[in-house]
Each structure stands twice: as C-alpha cells, then as structure tokens.
Amino acid sequence: MEKRFFDETNGLWYELGDGYYYPCPTVSEEEKRPISIWGQQHEQYLKEHRQIVYNTLLLSGKLNAYLADIDRQAQEQYELLINQMKQSRGITEDLKATDPLTWVGRMNNAQACAREIVNNEIIYN
C-alpha cells in the first residue's frame, strides 16, 4: 500500500497511518493570510460549538481564508465603532491633552463596548 495518494474526485491528499488513510488538508498560498485575535477567537468558537462547520472548512481547505475574512470584518467593525463612539462621547485630542485620566477612562469604556458588540455580532454568531 502507498503511504500517500491523491484522490482526484475530491482533490485531497491522503496519508496512511495506523492502517487507515487520513486526509491531509493543504492550504494554498492564496489562503495563507494572517489571522489576528478576532479570527483566532472565532476559530476557537467553531471548534467548541460548531464542530461540523469547523471540520467542513478544515477538510475543504477553506478554513484559513474564512477566518481571515472574519478577522478583517471584525477589525473593520471595531475601528468603525471606536470612531463613532469617540465622536458621540466627546473623546478628543483636546481632552487627552487637558484631562488624560478622563480620556483614558472614556477610551477604555469605548473599546470594551466595541469589543462586546463585535464579539456578539461577528465572533460568537
């Protein structure tokens, strides 16, 4: 028996181990995009709560691209929310210069709120 073989029907490589052939998912160079904290959190969520979706994406070789897309969406929404909250709550550079502690408190609050919204709408959804 061969140690490795390629199945043309599904496009996957298989490797012999313990008498069984196991799929060897590969990721193309296009799909190797960096994944930051948002994508990593979503991956952990998929592993724990959406195992079928996780395994389907992993075996099809689309997991990395999917997580990179989720990561990009979450980061864009986070930055947009932070900017909107800074405007609506009066968090300005003038405030930072005149009262740094108030500025830090308001920024921390805005970041926590934005993280919560992104987590609820994108990461754990």
Textual characterization of the structure:
The protein has 125 residues and is of the alpha+beta class. It has one domain. The protein is built from 5 helices and 3 strands, in the order βββααααα. The protein is rod-shaped. It comes from Acutalibacter muris.
How is this fold's topology laid out?
Layout: E1 4-7, E2 12-17, E3 20-24, H1 37-49, H2 51-60, H3 63-88, H4 93-98, H5 100-123
Antiparallel strand pairs: 1-2, 2-3
InterPro entries: TnpV (IPR026989)
Protein name: TnpV protein
Organism: Acutalibacter muris
Share of helical residues: 55-70%
Q: Give me the number of helical elements.
A: 5
Shape label: rod-shaped
Global mean pLDDT:
90
Domain unit count: 1
